[in-house]
Amino acid sequence: MSKRGYHHGNLRQALVEAALRLIEVKGPTGFTLSEAAKQAGVTPAAVYRHFEGREDLIAEAARQGFLMFADLMQHAYDKYQPSALAAFEATGRAYLAFARKHPGHYIAMFESGISSNRTPELANAARRAHQILERAADDLSQHIPAERRPPASMFSAHILAMSHGVVELYARNTPGTNSPFPPEDLLETGIGIYLRGLGLIDPD
Amino acid sequence: MSKRGYHHGNLRQALVEAALRLIEVKGPTGFTLSEAAKQAGVTPAAVYRHFEGREDLIAEAARQGFLMFADLMQHAYDKYQPSALAAFEATGRAYLAFARKHPGHYIAMFESGISSNRTPELANAARRAHQILERAADDLSQHIPAERRPPASMFSAHILAMSHGVVELYARNTPGTNSPFPPEDLLETGIGIYLRGLGLIDPD
DNA sequence: TGTACATCAGTGAACGCGCGTTCACTGATGTAC
DNA sequence: TGTACATCAGTGAACGCGCGTTCACTGATGTAC
Questions:
Q1: Most CB within 10 Å of its CB: which of A137, A183, B41, B102?
Q2: Which domain holds residue A33?
Q3: CB atoms < 10 A from the CB of A171, how many?
């Protein structure tokens, strides 16, 4: 901030943060370049010194989200080593925790409609996050007898789908859809039943 | 249509259909009242003879979607009776099939951000669809020993979450995210593993 | 330390645009007699 | 069948708005001498 004693200090990051706040409150569509600029105390035109435009700003927010997300999952994965099962479950939980803690990033990443292949930097960040989950799934798949072992990428996809579904359907504060159970419980039990189905948890 | 020989014939429904087409192509945000009017061959102001405004038009599209959705699930449920298991699996599959076949409705229902409690009619339609899935889950839960039987509404939520996640993450034609498996297979195997975890399918 | 200059982050005005919504109206359809 | 009238679906012009983006500019910061 004060290190580079420029006019604003660090407008680029200030804009990203304003965008995240707006995306969180107003949804991926309600976000406006002009309003983000205003919140950062700057003219809309100033944005163009740091970003190519509106989409580029969202992409940067998403990129930062994927980095944080990857760190969070990596941390969960490491923490529960060497138990492949515990590590896998923890990465699943990390998904929901991330969505809860950083809704702006989450929306920018998964609901804004921007492709993760939009820029190489964004694609890299997304790939890194994805690979951690896939690795946890791969570790786990070693514990399943080879002859009835589904591809690791398949059950990482299952867990991702259930996690994402729980977030979208039950962890959003949509006043209408009152969630029947706390989302954390829903995901926890869902993953538990699923893992039992894979033969990785005792039937009782 | 020709029965009521009005100026347009049946503008109300024509507007809904135009809206669905636009929502499908441009996303929930890209949809525009003015453009829907234009596609129906009518001035934007004409819309206000039939709807209170933009949101109301989307809500009607969603309502029609929930009705179709409920019919589809009901049909699937009935078809596979009396097997509670087959019926439940079929309603799960119906979810994905609906999302595939009627993407405009699906988006209006689940991604447009309008609350299903917006109007009583919409709430009714949504409830009806929900109850069918819940009933299939309830039938199924009778086959689980009472002492380790999770609430039916919980595993209907699990299936809903996984289905929704598969749709959002793998069944959208986002060019970047290439799905590792056909969404139908992903959902089928996911539900299969889950049901095995519930002890409803033989372990092998 | 002081002056002249280069850099470039942010300004402010302007643009063209399409939006949702309103309003008094028009004119085709349906109805009463 | 024909005329007078009521209804009301759709018109067209207008509104105020905020948007993303452009442009020549300004003025603070950093640098060379």
A1: A137
A2: 1-51
A3: 21
